[in-house]
Amino acid sequence: MGIRKIRTEGDEILRKTSKPVTEMTLRTKALIRDMFDTMYKADGVGLAAPQVGILKRIFVIDCTVDRSLPRVFINPEILETEGEQTGSEGCLSVPGKHATVTRPMKVRVRALDENMEEFTLTLEELEARCVLHENDHLDGILYVDKAEGPVVDNEE
Ligand code: GNR
Ligand code: NI
Hints:
Radius of gyration: 15 Å
CATH superfamily: Peptide deformylase
Bound molecules: ligand GNR, nickel (II) ion
CATH topology: Peptide Deformylase
Order of helices and strands: HEEEEEEEHE
């Protein structure tokens, strides 16, 4: 299990723009594997490469309760969004806190998979929220930038 250290707010790497992936290498495969291990260990529904200190345009998600639908997105592009959802959002890089964020309800996203094959997916609800949250990480954006109202402790 390759658990990597998750960077937290204040670490300037989280504010940088990540670079496109140009080729799949053994190192990048290991990174993706470690990102899944790290996300599952931390009980997250998503994790972006800059959160583990790597400025590459890669994120992973698994929004299922039984952790059965791992998805990897490389060089993602948001093609289209639709609707709106307002809900609570947290981030492994802002531990122990949450805030209300409004995002599109539906997203069409194109990306490359772990074999650098292109795919397009339409996702809704939590998966759409998660993809948009992770995609923001690749551009140095944190949900706290978009929060409506205060960012509060999870007990509140
Ligand atoms: O684990 C996470 N939960 C979550 C809840 C609502 C909206 C987005 C997320 S993503 C977050 C993991 C994380 O920080 N990914 O970058
Ligand atoms: Ni996050």
